[in-house]
Structures are given as C-alpha cells and as structure tokens.
Design goal:
mainly alpha, two-stranded antiparallel ribbon
Length: 111
C-alpha cells in the first residue's frame, strides 16, 4: 500500500515536470526572435533546443537525472528569460493607462 502511494506521487511528479517543460517550450516558441536579442538572452534557437530536449527526455527517457536537468532549464526559462522577453516586447503587464497609474487606478496626488 505504501509503495503504491509512493508510485502515485512519483507519477504526479513526472507529470508536473512534463507539463512545466511543455509550457516553457510553448512560451519559447511564441516569443519573437528579436525579443531574445533585445533582452540580452541566449538565442531563440538555443532555448528551443534545450526545452525540446527537456520535453523529449520527459516523454521518452525516464532517467531522473536528465529529467531534473530539464526541469532546471525550464525553471530558468520561466523565471529569468520569459519575464525579460515579456518586458522587452511590451507585455509587462500594463494594459494602457499612464505612468501615474497605481495598482487600483490613477493616482492624482490627492487633487
């Protein structure tokens, strides 16, 4: 019984690693090539190869060491590269408004 529970948890972990790698690969594919250069990150082709290998390893080669390397690459992309690309390409989370807008609307200095 305990071994079955551990196997289920391990399967969920493998699934989570695969989902993270696939999501990172989709974000890497949809970003523009010039955004990588403007953000001073590695080329788009570099990230596509690394994240593609991570997805392949998660799907085909169940070697935990290689899967962990893929998770690290996916996390680096999601935490470092994606926000930099998003900021450079104008997707920084602002949807219109002026520079004096606060988190709850415009700030007019108490006027």
């Amino acid at each position: 019984m305990l071994l079955e529970a551990f196997g289920s948890i391990l399967q969920l972990l493998y699934l989570a690693m695969l989902v993270l790698a696939v999501v990172a690969l989709v974000f890497a594919v949809t970003a523009r090539e010039d955004a990588y250069r403007a953000a001073d990150k590695q080329k788009k082709s570099f990230w596509l190869i690394i994240l593609g290998i991570a997805v392949f390893v998660n799907l085909v080669i169940p070697i935990l060491f290689l899967q962990i390397a893929g998770v690290i690459a996916s996390i680096v992309f999601m935490v470092d590269v994606r926000p930099a690309i998003k900021a450079v390409s104008g997707g920084g989370g602002r949807r219109g408004g002026s520079s004096s807008d606060g988190p709850y609307g415009p700030y007019n200095g108490g006027r």
